[in-house]
Amino acid sequence: MRRVLAWREYPYSVGPQSQHGRAHWSPRASASPAGHYRIGITVQRQQDAHLGRAASVLLKSLVRLAGERRDVREALSTIHQLLGQDLQALEGREERAPDGLRERVVHPNEGRRIVDTDVSDIQTLEMVVSRARWKAAACRLASDKRAASENDEDVPPELRRLEDGLRQRKESLEDCFAWMLDSPRPLPPEELLLQIAACYDTVALAAEVTLELHKEDALSPAPPSELLYLLAECQSSLLAGLNQVELRNDSDQRDLFLWLKEQTTRHRIYVDRHMRLDDPADHTACEERAARVRALAQELSERNKARLERDKLIAKMRYHVQKMMDAGSGSTSDWDSLVTAVTRWSELGFASTDRALHETLEPLAEELAAGRELPEPVQRVLTAELKPLRTERTEDQSEAAMEESRALLAGKRVVLFGKAEIANAGDPIAEALGLGQMRFVELEETGAPSLIEPALDDEGVDIVMIAMRLPMDDYTWFKQACMDREKPFVRLPGGVEPHQVAHQVIRQVGWRLRSRDRSPA
């Protein structure tokens, strides 16, 4: 049910109030002509009335928009929270007011960047590293201050010097809210405060590792999916920790999430864990998570070095094979260089059944067929049996996925989007998976909101499936439309054969369907 906020309008006025609630004006320039004074009051009242109406229209528009967009609701919630903190500070200690909302909103950092999810900005990660490390250190400083003294006046000098240094560093950080040092609310319990500090450290480590892999060109042509999964887990654990103290919209969690979301959308990599509020990561497991981040960073770095070495060897072999073909026969040096490259290939552990290797050496196969004795390393590659293009799932794996998918989808109502040629695929899928209903909606090459939105708005639809490739903008809109309506959606890149559908259901939304089945009615 959508929550509707009721608004009550009050007469807008500025200045000291009379007992009737109307503006009361006390002239300061008594020497001014009376006419000038009356004109000044009239103009001021008109300006105030315009400003009041404008503020009312703006607030009403924001509330209406908040009913449709989650980001607007979160922004209004954040402003409400910060206003409450500042009002509490004014009631308790007026000297805290300058550090409150007025300083953070009315006078923002001029250099602050707006994170655009349509632009891959590696500098976002650089800021996350600096800010998250700062916040981790600030959390631990706040812990030390609380342990050393019950009030600010008795804080040891060494801790004061550390705090001064931290605050100086903070001046260079964009959008860095020092809630652990400046918030009027009490600090969380010691254990939780240190857990949040560890979450910040893990987020900084994950962002730093991603930057290093970017510099090594290990994120090209697309970031490895296992890295994106781990980044999702790190940012989710921070969000889960901050939720324990009712803190929202942390800049580092938000920026890492937006960067991650942009990457998954751009490269069409589906990350099915820890990208939603109802699937939080454990905020107490940061030590183990940091170890996995370091191990994965080393693995991906070594994998990238191997890839670069592999590409270098392929290029070298292709060069010498081409020289041999152009000349009609190879020189001794060409054969020696080729054998050296093939031998090095084996020493590095690369498979002799690699298709790129075979395609490179394939022109020499005629020499082998003609009875010419080729060097043993080259002959071994050319006579090796190629590995299949795709590793087929075993029959047991397919049947296990089918059985689990059938249990999770039993009685569910599904809408399938795709081209006209798969219009008859719905019945076999529904029968194989035990669906309650399967509805097919035909789409062209691009997504059509007029066809998609009615199907998504149908309360009788439990799950959405799409069996076609949409342009990037259309796919982004489609994905967001499903998320806004909390409809699990499944992409079917391998086709609409029931076993393929079952496999994709388990891989993409299996965790969510299991959690829903475990939820109390």
Number of helices: 19
- Biggest β-sheet strands, sense, barrel: 4 strands, parallel
User: Could you give the distance between the termini?
Assistant: 18 Å
Indicate the proportion of strand residues. under 5%
Overall shape = globular
- Protein structure class: mainly alpha
The topology string of helices and strands comes to HHHHHHHHHHHHHHHEHEHEHEH
For the largest sheet, list the strands in their spatial order.
2-1-3-4
Number of DSSP-assigned strands: 4
Radius of gyration: 32 Å
Mean pLDDT: 79
Low-confidence stretches: 1-34, 93-120
Helix fraction bin: 55-70%
Describe the structure.
By secondary structure, this protein is mainly alpha-helical. Helix content is 60%, strand content 4%. It is built from 19 helices and four strands. It has helices at 34-66, 70-92, 101-106, 122-148, 157-170, 179-182, 190-215, 225-243, 251-267, 286-327, 332-347, 355-361, 365-369, 376-382, 395-409, 426-433, 449-457, 472-484, 498-518, and strands spanning 413-418, 437-442, 463-466, 489-491. It has a four-stranded parallel beta sheet with strand order 2-1-3-4, with helices on both faces. Helix 7 (190-215) runs parallel beside helix 10. It is globular, with a radius of gyration of 32 Å. Residues 1-34 and 93-120 have low confidence and may be disordered.
